[in-house]
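Researcher: Please translate sequence to structure tokens.
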Amino acid sequence: MRISAYFSGALLVLLLLGAGFHLFAWRSEIAPVTPAEATSFDVGTVRKGASLAAIGNCSSCHTTPGGESFAGGLPIRTPFGTIYSTNITPDEETGIGRWSEAAFIRAMREGVDRQGRHLYPAFPYDHFTLVTDEDNRAIYAYLMTRRPVRARPPENELPFPLNVRTILAGWKLLFFEEGVFQPDPSRGDAWNRGAYLAEGLGHCGACHTPRNQLGARRTDRHWAGGQSQGWTAYPINAESPAPVPWDQSALTFYLRHGWHEAHGVSRGPMAEVTNNLGTVPHEEVATIAAYTAEVMGTPSPQRQDRAKELLAASPTGRGVGPSGDTQAVPSGAEGDGAPGGRIYASACASCHDSGRPLPFGGLPFSLSTAVNAANPQNIINVTLFGLPPANGQASAVMPAYGGVLSDEQMVALLDHLRARYTDKPAWEGLMELVRNTRSGAHYVTVMPADALEQSPGPLGVEK
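Model: Translation complete:
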């Protein structure tokens, strides 16, 4: 009797807890609305929304390569499974055409869709919650004036119980802090604007901050580096491995143009970011850069002196002729005659030691963050898959060597770069990383330098 009563009591407690959690997790549906005519939205508000959507990099996740803008369906691979982005065009059946402004703001602020379902944090509402209602209304106006596209994304590929959205309420309870950005009254307007854009809509920390085992950002490691689509998102705080320290001017140029002479060309997911930011007013990008530069902090005098030495020794400008691409391979580029040095001399030196300036020349490896980074993943990605050209315009480009170099040759080349161009210790586990990346066991997203197929498109109302 006592055992039966004990189990009955325990079952009752579990049922009550389950009912209580369900009540806590429940969110009401927001009634659908009749879509407004695109011409009913103020053109100035739409233009503002276009700029904000570009800062938020919205198109990059909600557009498949070569697909219709904002129509969703892009697979977002996470350690927990694959999530497919949603259609955020104003299509009434498969998009957000019947979402009210209030429903859109709730999704941004709380991570809950119009039907009341919790959204997976692959949609970075833990950043978007900081966005003001005014800016959300502008983004809403921009999306509602895009061309409706009828497209339903595939079902998410998540194991039980992760495919039960109710449990996301528990994740939010642990890791999600809702609330609009609050300016710091002790800081100036430019700093606060930069913090608002970088921490909120720009969601820099979504990639550049490490995550715990439950996929939440580690708040104790702000901007200390992370992973995105098979690429390493470098630390953008005081731990930055860049041989030449970033400053506001360099960051502003890089974010607007996708390259910088002392830092190289954006690639992987960062190519999408810089392509989108290239459409944004200069002053907005400058505030993001100023805030980021402050987070990085002032480099030590020793690091600044080392950077000056590296820049002075850089071969930039040494090339013969207007393009600088006729430079012979510099003496010593072949290294000590070891396999890695010979591969470098035959495959890399003609670009990376030619002195031809960026973005069409190769960055001297002494300035390369990828070669100086603790994790070699990015230099593996670029060497295997190259940098595809932009569509229909001059752009940075690099051939893929995955079909030319064996795993052993890849490792020899990368070991050579690390030893010759840095003072860092050799990478460990390099062969395994190369093999996993080549085989697809480590999935990598490869895209052109401009990521044009995922850019927001014209600023303004679509007819």
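Researcher: Any highlights?
Model: The CA atoms of residues 32 and 330 lie 67 Å apart.
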